[in-house]
Amino acid sequence: MPVLKLFPLATALLFLAAPTFAAPGDPTPATPPPKRARDPAREPAREPTGVMRYDTNKDGVVDRAEWTAGQEARFKRLDANGDGKLTQDELFARTPGVGNSVLPSDRQAGRQSAYFQRLDADKDGVVTLIEFMAVAERNFVRCDLNKDGRIDTAECRQALQRKPGDSARSTR
After folding, report:
1. Which of 9, 49, 156, 166 could make an S-S bridge to 143, C-beta 3.0–4.6 Å?
2. Which distant-in-sequence residues (6+ apart) come within 8 Å of 44 by Cβ?
């Protein structure tokens, strides 16, 4: 009979000691942290991208003066050696490769070469500020669909969906 008296005591001790026998690292059921409402005021401001990065006065549009100043600054940033001319290597030095590669794919390299050839109007193997700005001006005119001297993201997106020759037909 003494065994019967010890049975409830042994069961109670086993019950109390059960957490000790749990495997180390067993996840304990936890409630997920409550979701906080997104507070845009507390998030860091994102830098504008695309054409709007040239909107220096933050009025929602890029005028010709902002565009010109932005393109000239871009040329200076790209001109790594400061000689006033861009080589193909300088122009695409910051262009990431495909996947984990540091080298561009064949298709990407072909596009870069074709773009460089369009910029290099006199075919001397370098792009001067004058050549760079001539293409920048053509791009501004192409994006300025309503011809008001101001462009924004929507206007450029619409312009880029059309072929370059279509702009003359759309203004009639």
Report:
1. 156
2. none
Measured CA to CA in angstroms, residue 39 lies from 33, 45, 58, 101 at distances of 17, 12, 22, 37
Give the right CATH number for 63-170 from 3.40.630.30, 1.10.238.10, 2.30.280.20, 3.40.50.1000.
Answer: 1.10.238.10
Q: What percent of the chain has pLDDT over 90?
A: 52
Q: Spell out the alpha helix ranges (H) of the chain.
A: 2-21, 64-78, 88-91, 106-119, 129-143, 153-160, 166-170
What number of other Cβ atoms are within 10 A of residue 55's Cβ?
20
Q: Which residues pair with 150 in a beta bridge?
A: 63
Give the count of beta carbons closer than 10 Å to the beta carbon of residue 85.
18
CB 122 within 8 A of CB 167: no
Crossing angle of helices 129-143 and 64-78, in 10° steps, is: 140
